[in-house]
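Schema walk-through. Below, the input block comes first and the output block second. Nothing else is stored per chain. Lengths vary across the set, and this one has 243 residues.
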Amino acid sequence: MPLHEIFVGLGVFVASVVFVREARRRGALNEQSLVAVTGALVGGAIGMRLAGWLETMNLSDLWMYGSRSILGGLTGAYIGVLIAKKIIGYRERTGDLFAPAVALGMAVGRIGCHLTEAPGRPTSLPWGVHAPATTPECPGCLAGQAMHPSFVYEIIFQLVAFAALLWARERLTQPGELFTLYLAGYAAFRFVVEFTRANEILWLDLTGPQWFLVPGLLLLGLRLVYGWRRGHYAPLFQRKVMT
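--- output ---
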């Protein structure tokens, strides 16, 4: 069974359901927001495949390997939303609608990664996992080594992020800040968790995804400083007064 593709599909379905429920809750469920979702789905599919294809630069591998790049998918989805909104002239911000949906959808999709891909780098920690020797591109699997369950780390992060976003959405009133916090949190987490992943090291002990994240982290850091100085995140640290 194509477990990876099945769980990616389930993740997209879960994310779509959460988006619709969140849009309905905010009174933003309309044709324009649904067009934005379509843009995200199309852009995400293209981004995943193009980013994965860049690893081999072989057109015959475009379908086979392109569905395994989450960072490419997120980038493509973001660009897809911008293009879709530009085409229909929709100016409302939709990032806050996507944030909880993406977090939960990613948690589901990463189950497929855990079941089919190389878990991570070798570890002596007690929660190290073993994967079948048939796992692609996994020398540690062939050697029977215990490895970091890096995808499990991400599943846990995404579930915690989903819960935190549900908590924060009632407190943040500035449009776009919920999405900004999620992007910054995930980018920082992904950069750190890459040290446990089995991806190839390119330069200065950093992997390709880490180098991809470096400029984004810098921009997101500046964006967080901007929001902090304007008090956008102050409500997160204020206690609600019981009446």
